[in-house]
Amino acid sequence: MPENNGVPEASGGIRMGDVSGTVVVGSNNTVSIVQGAPLPDPVKRRPISQLPRSAGEPLIGRARDVEVLREAVGTRQLVQVWGASGVGKSALLRHLARELPRGPEGAAYVEAGGRTADDLAQALFDISFDAPNYKPSLEVLKEHLKTLRLRIYLDDAGLDERDLRRLFDMAEQSTFVFTAQQRSAVDGVHAIRLDGLTAPAATELVEALLPRALRPDEARIVPALCDAVHGNPLRLRRIALSAATGKGLPGIADLPELLPALLNRLGPQERDLLYLLGSLSGAELAARHLNELLGLPDSDALAGGLVRHGLLLASETGYSCPPDVAECVLNVRKTVFPADRLCRALTTWVEAKDTTPDDLAAHFQALDAVVLRAERSGHAPLGAALARAASPKLALSRQFDAWGSLLGAGWSAARSAGDKEGEEFFLHEARTRRRALGRAAQTTALVLEAEVLWRELTALHAHAAGQQAAGAASAVTPPAHAVAPAAHAVTATHGVGGTHAVTHTTVPTSATSAPVHASVPAHASVPTHAARPVIDLSQAPAQPHVAVHATGAHSAAPVPKRIDLSTHSSVTQPPHAAGTAPSATSAGHTGLAAVGAAGAKGGISALALACALGAVAVLGVGAAVYANDQPNPSPTAASSSAGTSGFSDSTSSTPTVDPVCAAGIPDLMTEMQQFDTDASLASDELDSYNSAMEDYNSGLTSTAPDKSALLSDLDTVISDLQTVESTLQGAVSQAQDSSVESDLNDMLTSVQQMESQYQTYANDPEGSVVDTSSQVSALGSAAARLQTDCGE
User: Fold this and answer.
1) Separation between Cα atoms, residue 226 and residue 270, nearest integer Å
2) Cα dihedral 68→72→74→77 (10° resolution)
3) Residue 730, Cβ neighbours under 10 Å: how many?
4) CB of 284 within 8 A of CB of 277?
5) What is the pLDDT of residue 529?
6) What dihedral angle (degrees, nearest 10) is formed by the CA atoms of 463, 774, 612, 400?
7) Rounded to whole angstroms, how far apart are CA atoms 15 and 24?
8) Whole-angstrom Cα distance, residue 562 to residue 257?
9) Do 529 and 572 meet the contact criterion of CB atoms below 8 Å apart?
């Protein structure tokens, strides 16, 4: 498809493809579309080179792995390095990018964590072509990328199989080397598992980190310690720190409590740094942010020492906190870094003249995390103001999915703040984004425009949150005392009847991907002599959860086993999201009463919204296709999108789509809405149950509350899923297009798996584990594909 026109580079705008104009920063910080001059013809750079910075220390114990990968990259087009968190995948990939021969046209290293396939494709275009401020249409982007013959290194590429394949196909002549925590199922990928270090390599690493030589007794124990941590370099670094700051290497029995012991030995500035980054649910900040927020002259040196000893992670653009470290730090602090301070500092940074659009794109997960944290901690106006200030520059970064994620977070914060003008601002920007992506026809045809835009932006949060949840779930083994780092853990202790922890990382109604929690109590009755149930609905940060327990006579209840009811992979949450979404706890939540009501109010309802996400997003497809099939569309409908003057659609032809898109999707949408309604009722019942349980825990009542009504509501939710399953089966049988049929089958599989897990839990709550995170992520991805295949 040919490009249209745009404005000259001097305008400072982004030149767009397939729309009649250019995205520029307009009045009132609004990104609007205006008419302009012809678009440029991108010129390929020669050579193409974007490499990671040089490592500060040698790569220890990986000579054999480097040779294996050198051979694989030389003979294969798609190579994956996969393995557990902390095993050294990123360090190895950086080494390969710098040391291996370049491709015929060069090499490109990209940090892919949290980014969508479309944003990664745009990043590759920006690296490879000289075309400032230009965002091609998807078709033209593919035409340019398929000419590249690069070696492309993608770190932390958490895309699903279909999106990975789509990205690979766009740059079909390039070689891809990418890392992930799970083995890829994409056909043609040569997957190589990265294991831990051998005992000799572990000894070499520990010696390199110590300011002294290992004593003979220490040298003898290193192999046993290496075996205990499976050779994980991140944990071996912590073992070395223990020897450097204590009397010697820890024993095997000391390992479960090693992390809190290390944190206790740190200085105040180091602990404050970990506290700040640990409050961001896995998102990273640059040294500039750390200096300002903590009043440090040079946080790089401080952070570098913590990276060296496995307590922080470093990227090309900043630092982040590992999930288990964050969880441990926040458990000690019993709070999170104040959201209002984060908002004010980042707003100042965003508005600074020397802050570039690419700077914002590099830290979009932190922006999402802070906006969502602000909303949930009572500072929604500050969160909305941050998102509003960041929106124009993030649009200019050409990372449109990151931009869309921020718009969703900002819209939610504005709505929570009662800021009608702010809500319209974010919806106006979302309309502009849809037009820039060639989705104008669907937007102008919809009556429920705001709902459709919101669901679409929420889907972007789901993508980023899904990747972060997967990362946290595969994190290094936490200390014995720690709550699972991948998500918010919500505990319900049930005496002799068993104990459970329920985890939710979802997309709530009034926020994009910040996790909210709901505990589902066990069916077993609680004898009067047993420890009273404690339901902890703390909304602390997803990835580094702070377990908040009631104090007093009943605080000695046994540690509960876990039931994981995660539903997401945020933009977020930072990222924005699901195991790493922003905190929902305001500073000062120290007791059950404060956190119980807040968590119960959003838990199951938010779960339902996350599960319904894919089908709800498809509403836009069904309505748009129906409108496009009608003769002489209403001028009123065509102009229903307020605030978009200056734009003229170039897509007037009616797409050919499968009839099931218009006939079946509306029914599916209705059923998903019923699912959400019934889950909201279950949430209200949960709120009542937790209130009664709070009275019971505090001694105000002597009888444990009855949970039969809650269990009945959960049965209704299962019934709703069965109805959705039936509708999807009917749609599959009626589908005529093979791609649409495949999308519906993928959605059906996800719904069936969710239903099966809930049913299993209902039948055996004492011995079941429910984790729907992967199903919800797959459901959202399938629904997004259905949008495209139905005419998007």
Assistant:
1) 26
2) -160
3) 16
4) yes
5) 32
6) 10
7) 9
8) 20
9) no
Q: Which of 592, 573, 591 is nearest to 582 (CA)?
A: 573
Q: Look at residue 537 and give its three-state secondary structure.
A: coil
Alpha carbon of residue 79 to chain centroid: 24
* Sign of CA pseudo-dihedral 332, 333, 334, 335: negative
Those residues with Cβ within 8 angstroms of residue 377's Cβ, 6 or more apart along the chain or in another chain? 338, 339, 340, 583, 584, 585, 586, 587
Contact 17, 140 (CB under 8 A): yes
767 confidence band (pLDDT: 50, 70, 90): low
Instruction: Report the distance separating Cα 743 and Cα 730, nearest Å.
Output: 13
CA nearest 399: which of 42, 760, 114, 35?
114
* Structure-block tokens of residue 166: 């789509």
HSE value, Cβ hemisphere, 13 Å, CA-based, for 248: 12
Separation of alpha carbons 229 and 458, rounded Å: 38
Closest CA to 511 of 670, 386, 391, 383: 383
Q: At what angle do helices 665-698 and 592-629 cross, to 10 degrees?
A: 170
SS3 content of the chain, % helix, strand, coil (to 5): 55, 10, 40
Q: What are phi and psi of 667, to 5 degrees?
A: -65, -40
- Could you give the angle at which helices 400-416 and 380-396 cross, rounded to 10 degrees? 160
Angle at 467 between CA 368 and CA 160, to 5 degrees: 130
Q: Are 487 and 582 in contact (CB under 8 A)?
A: no
Nearest to 374 by CA among 327, 329, 325, 422: 422
Q: Tell me the two tokens of residue 639.
A: 């102009």
pLDDT tens digits for range 93-136: 999 999 999 999 999 999 999 999 999 999 999 999 999 888 88
pLDDT, one tens digit per residue, over 384-433 is 999 999 999 999 999 999 999 999 999 999 999 999 999 999 988 988 88
Q: Do the Cβ atoms of 416 and 380 come closer than 8 Å? A: yes
Query: Alpha carbon 136 to chain centroid distance?
Result: 26
Q: Are the C-beta atoms of residues 488 and 546 closer than 8 Å to each other?
A: no
The C-alpha R_g of the chain, in whole angstroms, comes to 26
One-letter-per-residue 3-state SS of 753-766: HHHHHHHHHHHCCC
Across 38-52, 308-322, 748-762, least confident range: 748-762
The Cα-based distances of 65 to 77, 93, 191, 360, 475 in angstroms read 18, 11, 13, 35, 21
Decide if 235 contacts 229 (C-beta within 8 A): yes
What is the pTM for the complete model shown? 0.62
> Which amino acid type is present at position 516?
V
Q: Which positions ≥6 away from 765 have C-beta within 8 Å? A: 498, 500, 520, 522, 523, 524, 563
